[in-house]
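Example with several molecule types.
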Amino acid sequence: MRKSWSLQYYQTEALAHFLDYLLCEIHDGTAALVLTDGRALHVHTVHPADTATLPAAATQCFQYFQLKDGEVAIGNDPYAGGTRLSDITLVMGIAFETPGEVSDVLLAVRLRFPPKISLEGKLEEEGLRIPPMPIVVKEKLNTDVLKAMAAAPNAPIDLVGRIESAVTEMMRVRQSLKQCGQDPGNELRKANFKRYFQDCHDIAVQLLHKIPLGEALVTGHLETGELTKLRLEATEERVTFDFTGTEASKNVQMSDLATLGACFSVVQTMLGQKLPANAGVFSCVQLLAPARTWVNAKAPAATARGVSDGVAFVSSLGVRAFAKLNKALAVGASAYGSGHVQFSFENNALVSSFVSDVTPGGTGAGNDHPGIDGWNLWLHCDHPKSVEEIEVKFPVQIKSVVIRPASGGRGKFPGGNGLVKTYTLTKSARVSWALEQASNKPEGADGGKPGLTAEITLQRSGSDEKEKLAAKGTVELEAGDVLRVFSAGGGAFGAPEPEVTT
Amino acid sequence: MPVSLGLSIGESFADFVAESTVKNIPPQRLFLARKGLGDGLKAYLGEHLELGGQILISTNLSQFAVQKRLGSQPTFLITAGFENWLKLSRPLADDRPQMYPTREPLPVSEDHIFGIAERVQADGTIETPVSEDDLQFLASKLELLKTRTVAVGLLHSTKNPAHELRIREILEPKGFRVFCSHEFAHDALSETDRWVKVLKAASVWSAVTDQKQVIETALGEHKDKWKIRYIAHPRYENVLFDSPGLETELGVASSLLAQYPKKTILHLDLEQFLWLQDGRVRQLRVQPTTPLQKSSWPFAVYSDTQVGYEPGPMAFGKSLQPTIFDILYLRQRLETIEAVTPLLNEKSKPRILEALFTMSKEIPSKTKIDANTVAADMETALLDRINEELLLTGKKPTEILLTGAFARSLHPRLESRRPDVRFILADDAEFAGTRANLSMGLKMGSKVGNA
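Resulting structure tokens for the full complex:
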């Protein structure tokens, strides 16, 4: 039908658009279509850590179970394609072109539940570990297995309901893919995939030409002092993120695949373009992360903090490295810490519940933009959606959420302000928290002033005294105690106007 | 009723379809930027004006009333301590990865947000009662602001609406129209979704009230002989509304679903492309005024936004950005559309072609790029985008009914794109939506709801 402007690019764009549309409405938009040989056909994510982990999770499930058309497996192992234990992946085999039951593609969908952090860095404390296992066989959902999982003391709330509804959605997508086989004009054909990957790779390479070539070395420290070293190398064909020299950490840890996703996210952000996320494009981003560093941790290291604060830290470091290659990309540092606070309640001797919440800080300003208040550039999918929901489910009251005045750095373009979130309890609880940037201010750029650091204070019931707490810790709270989380402000860009004194 | 008038009011066009016991009145379309709704209505009814009857209106006003700031600006009352919360909860306006993202704009000016010192707990218990003195003081502040509508969004008002209702009790006698968020809590919405909804309702109510006023003014001395009713979203199961607000959203879809039950409908009208299947309504990703934009591809693609008809597509001789409308113009698909032909400016063609050519310069093709071919390609891309909707349902319909102003011209193209599906052109497809308003109104006239 079409034989004109670079026919092949048009067909490739049409396929990329279709796959994106197909996946974007599935469960918060975290889904991937992956070929059975492991190549990602399309990944649609909202969290950077999902980009490389979802295809890996799909491939692992297929290797274990050789999923046939319509069969679904489940898993959440952070070291087998997962991210953190609270993120559960479902993988379905789909035969859309080949007659019979042999799958042509794998559909991976990730369900995100509230993360639980382990201050001790122990994976088993972060939730229920689900080894890969089939849950839909011969079109039948194994509800007994799901119920057994849901009965575990550290299982997420509404696990069964959300899995059931996700499987229904996946079945709809499967039907859509099967319909593609009947549409003579559709580009979703196995014969087209080689060309599709090559075209997408070529497009990405053309875009990479907009990034200055060269090498840049940047370093940074986590709140607890561990060194992170990043050597960025941008060539005409590829961007390499080399973390050689980075230290291990007991606080913030994540898998290399989660780190790779963060790096891909930085490249996209620098280009200001949404690249088609598939194997062809992924081949333009390379990660070198020595084992046992915090950016390539190994089991049984806990990953919840890595997948939030760690991903944002790596991304911020990546931005700084690009700014070294091109000064025009310089920005004030953003508050990358999520301000994670977790309340645990003992409901009875056997059952406990927990609620976790985050307080985003401000973003850094650029050479023609002020920063944004209360926005985490990399983790906005984790932003709290509802005050009421937390208060209805748990004996916590959020008294207020306000913008923290003057917390963004001063400058020609000021940094975004952090927030102040105030909690009080209606029942005793244990609260744990872990703040990043409680001692390191988010720096300004080009003479801009830094933002304020993150803080947490406690005011005991009946007392006027507000005690400043350490960056990380656990305390027992009684009903009526008030906890305040102050998130960091973003760094400013450009020197502020001198103050006029009379 | 001597005259029954179906009226579809969009952002830029209004369609009239009437049935009269006296004389046949042909359907008509009005471009609102050229002639106001009131004048157009008066001219259309002509001597029928004095006969009286009923006017059955569908409007998609609720989709753009907030964005275009139609009607009077509402004031938003919120639990103290959460004045920033709605702003902080707004999603990104654009999902492209970028260093300086912007949030979607607030549906209310930040200067019109006031905190109320009150608190209802999660179980509905009142922790801090609302102060009567504070409310009286607030009322005088609102008078100074010349506010007409007030939206109230208090935490946990779905558990205990006492405070929201008390605010209404105090403010309504003083002449303010008060909208309470607990009345918009269907589908287990979060508080911020509920607040956006109540603010939208307040804005839409104000805009629709203005619109109704325009119609009543046009009816003049014969106003009392006419009944004006609005057709609501399909969720309201074909109930008509006397003084509507948010319920009017996608009103024409409701009429079409009622007129053609059990059919799968592709409504390709001047202002919106809709997919109607199994009682559900879905707006297509591509819309008639979707612009082309640069992307990561070496050629322009359709964006996810709409630019509307103000200042108008390039084909009207205005604007600099080509849209789907312009592509269809270049492809000669607009010639038979009522009221649109006189707006088309022949001189715009080379400008549109030039814009397409400029956007396609980066195509790494060995062959010479020709703007006419690019236009043909963009039309095919449009058909592909429409076809995606069909694929995404996961349930292939055997036949699809086509309605709307573009239905006739796109019919053969859709048929050749999907030869395995039967596309049927509705009777008088161009005005099928407005005609459906009329027949639904005649059928459902006795079921009138309160907004």
